[in-house]
Specification:
Shape: globular
Order of helices and strands: HEEHEEHEEHEEEE
Largest sheet: 5 strands, mixed
CATH topology of one domain: Sulfite Oxidase, Chain A, domain 2
CATH class of one domain: Alpha Beta
Radius of gyration: 17 Å
Strand order of the largest sheet: 2-1-10-5-6
CATH architecture of one domain: Alpha-Beta Complex
Number of strands: 10
Structural class: mainly beta
Helix content: 10-25%
Number of helices: 4
Bound molecules: ligand MTE, molybdenum atom
Strand content: 25-35%
Distance between the termini: 57 Å
Length: 206
């Protein structure tokens, strides 16, 4: 009997329309911000369960328990970066410490300079969604989001916000930076949800 030939793993792992480039591109809008540990804080705000904001200083945030996630990374401009080992604070851990109010169905993640990305609570709460402090066993480099970036592996990478400073719990959906500039509100790369004109009724706020 002939053994089934092995399919290169990256083929089955690559969403439609994506390719694996040489190297690992770095891409973002604007400049790399300076990290100032004395004034840096990570805030959880909006519709929290207590009604209060939660704040984590750099020493507090960097001491939170970490988990490791192996994940690929798909940019809407069609390159994918395969097999990244991210380590950081899972959204489950953060939500335990700073729980959302009942009725929170959406989240906005905020970065330095006002960059933002929104997602459904169901995407935020997925087991592999995290706030990464390390990539491949080293602190994340400044241009990749040091000290903390979001990693939402199952959505296009613009949702994986670098230089995160806050999470805002939302009772109603609102568009983030790219979502209000013509990109798809949901951004599932397996369904090629690239642009907002593809949105079906109910997939985004008006
Ligand atoms: N704060 C911030 N985060 C960001 C961006 C940005 O412009 N600002 N760009 C996003 C986009 S479009 C992509 S593809 C990835 C790129 O991550 P990388 O530079 O590690 O490859 O970061 C995302 N996170
Ligand atoms: Mo991107």
């Amino acid at each position: 009997m002939v053994e089934q030939s092995e399919t290169p793993q990256e083929e089955t792992r690559l969403p439609p329309g994506q390719y694996v480039p040489r190297g690992r591109p770095v891409i973002h809008y604007g400049r790399v911000p300076t990290f100032r540990p004395a004034t840096w804080e990570f805030r959880v705000m909006g519709a929290t369960a207590s009604g209060e904001q939660h704040r984590f200083t750099w020493p507090q945030f960097s001491e939170l328990p970490r988990t490791t996630v192996m994940a690929d990374f798909h940019c809407v401009t069609k390159f994918s970066i395969m097999g990244n080992e991210w380590r950081g604070v899972s959204t489950a851990t953060l939500m335990e410490l700073a729980p959302p109010a009942p009725g929170v169905k959406h989240v906005m993640i905020w970065a330095e300079y006002g960059y933002s990305a929104n997602m459904r609570m169901s995407d935020f709460g997925r087991g592999h969604t995290l706030f990464a402090l390390e990539l491949d066993e080293k602190p994340i480099s400044p241009e990749r989001g040091f000290p903390v970036r979001a990693i939402v592996p199952h959505l296009y990478a613009w949702k994986s916000v670098k230089w995160v400073r806050a999470v805002e719990y939302l009772l109603e959906d609102r568009r983030g930076f790219w979502e209000e500039r013509g990109y798809h509100n949901l951004a599932d790369p397996w369904r090629e949800q690239r642009y907002s004109y593809q949105e079906e009724p109910g997939e985004g706020p008006l």
